[in-house]
Amino acid sequence: MHPAFSVIFLTTLIGAGQGLFLALITAETFSHMGALAPQEYRFYSTGSLLSLGLLVAGLVASFFHLGHPERAWRSAAMWRTSWLSREVIALPAFMGLVFIYGLLHYLEWNPKVFGTTALPETNLTLMVGIIGIVLCFTLFICTGMIYACLKFLQEWHTPLTPINYTLLGMSSGFTLATAFATQYSQEMTDLFGTWAIILTLAALLTRTASLLRNKGIKHRSTLRTAIGVHHSNIRQQSQGSMGGSFNTREYFHGMSTVFFKSIQWIFLLLVFPLPLLLLGMGLSNDTTALLVLAFAVQYVGLIAERWFFFAQANHPQNLYYQTI
Amino acid sequence: MTQLALVIDLNVCVGCHACVTSCKQWNTSGAAGSLMDDNPYDKDPTGTFFNRVQTYEVGEFPNTETIHFPKSCLHCEDPPCVPVCPTGASYKRKEDGIVLVDYDKCIGCNYCSWACPYGAREIDEKQKVMKKCTLCVDRIYDESLPETERKPACVLACPTSARLFGDVHDPESEVSRAICESGGYPLMPEWGTQPANHYLPRRKTKIRFHKDELMRADNPLKKDGRLPKTDPDAPFLDDSVSW
Ligand code: SF4
Ligand code: SF4
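^ thats the input. predicted complex w/ iron/sulfur cluster below
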C-alpha cells in the first residue's frame, strides 16, 4: 500500500496522546491508593492539555486524507459495520473526555462520588479517568481494526495489528510522560520511566512477532485466481493504461527495495533500542533533555514504523498491475 | 431477487477497448459529472475509468495464448467494500444487486478501495469521490431509450458480443445459461466475495471429422446407384439466381 502521511501522523500522534493520558491515570490511581504522593492539579491539567494537543494534531492530520473533509461528519453513520466509522466516534469522544478530565483538575473540582465499605472511595476525576481508560482502549482497538479487518490484506489481518497499535502508542505516550514528569516529581518520573521501558520491550516483542509472521506470509491470491486461468506461466502484457492510474499509485509504495528494507532496520533501531538506552540514561542521570530526546527519537522511529506497516501490505489488486 | 451482472467471454474478446471508450463516453457525460482526465494528450496521461482491458500472455513461446481481460467492478453478492464505508455512501441495491456509490455522501477516504480485492474502485482525483462501474444504472432503466438499448454501454459497444448482461439469479436468463454451459467462473473465489460478474474461459474449438463422415459409405443413393449425375455444362438454376 502507498503510505499516506496524513494517516501516519494521525495514528502516531493519537497513539502518543492516548499513551500520555493512560500515564496520567496511572499516576492518579497510584496516588489515590497511596502508593504515590498526591500531585498538584497542574500536573494533571497540563498533562491533559498536552495529550489533547496531540489528539487534535492527529485529527487535523486525518482531515488531509479526506477528499471532502467538509463532509467528515457523515462518517459517523455506519458504526454498526465500519471500524473507520467507530474510530470517527471514539476519537472525539475520547478527546472530549480528556478535556473534561483536564478541566476538572484545573478547577480542582473533585468531589467524592461514592465510597462505601464494599467499594473503595472514588473521586470524580478518578471516575472520569476510568471512563477515559475504556474510551482510550476502544480507540486503540478501532484504529488497529481498521487495518486488521481487511482479510485479504494478509499482512494486516492478524490480532497483532491492534496489539501493536496499542503497545506502540502506549510506549510512546509513557516515554513522553516520563520526560513531562521530570518537571513535577522524581518519584513519578521513575514510575513512568519504568512503565515506558516495560511497554517498549513488550512492543518490541509483538512487533517482532508480526515482522516474523509477515516474512514468510503466503499470499492466497495469485495471478491464476485473479484472472481465472490455470496455467503456471502467465505474464501481464498491458494493464489498460499507459500513464498509470489510481491503482498504480494507491497500492504500491513506489520506493526501491533497498529503501523499503532499510526503513525496517531504521524503525527497529529508532523505536526500541535507542529510546530504551536514552530512557535508561535519562532516568539514572535525571536529565530531562535525554528523556525528551528519547521521546523524539522514538516518535521519528514510529513514523518510519507506520510507513513500513503500510508499505509492507501487499494488496491483491497489485496482481493486475504488474506491467504498464 | 435480481442480481444484474455482466458475463464476459474471454474466448471472443479481441482486446479492442471499445467497451472502455464507450464506458468512458457514457459515464463522463452523465448527471454525475465528468470522469477525471489529467494530461489526456500529454506526458503521463491519467484518468478515472470504470472499465479497463488488460492483456495477459499464457504459456511459453511459441505455444502462447493471448488473453484480453476486461476488468470492472464485479458487483459482488457479498461486497467487502460496502460494510467498511463509514458514511454509507457505498451500498448495494436490494432490488437489482448493483453496488453503487452515492457521490453526494462520499468523503473520499479511499477505505472502500482498500477493501476491494480486485482494485475495481478508482477515486476521481478532481471530484474527490470514489467511482466505479454502475452497470450503467442511468441507462438500463431509461424508458425513453428503445428496449434493445437499455443495456450497459460496454455491452452495446462490444463488436464481438463478448459481453452479456442480465440477471444471474434467473436460471433461464442468457447470462445464467452462458455461465452454466460454458463453465463461467468468478475471480478470486478465495475471498468469498461471490462476484456477480462471471468470466467465460478460453475454449478450444475443435471438430473431429472421420473420412466416412465426409463421404458417407452408407449413402442410400449411392447404394441404389441412383446418384444424380448432372451435366457440368448444362445450365442450372443457380446461374440465374446467384448473381
Ligand atoms: S468488485 Fe470490488 S468494488 Fe465491486 S462490489 Fe466487489 S468488492 Fe466492491
Ligand atoms: S471513499 Fe467514499 S464510498 Fe469509499 S469508504 Fe470512503 S466515504 Fe465510503
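Residues 154 and 191 of chain B are 27 Å apart (CA to CA).
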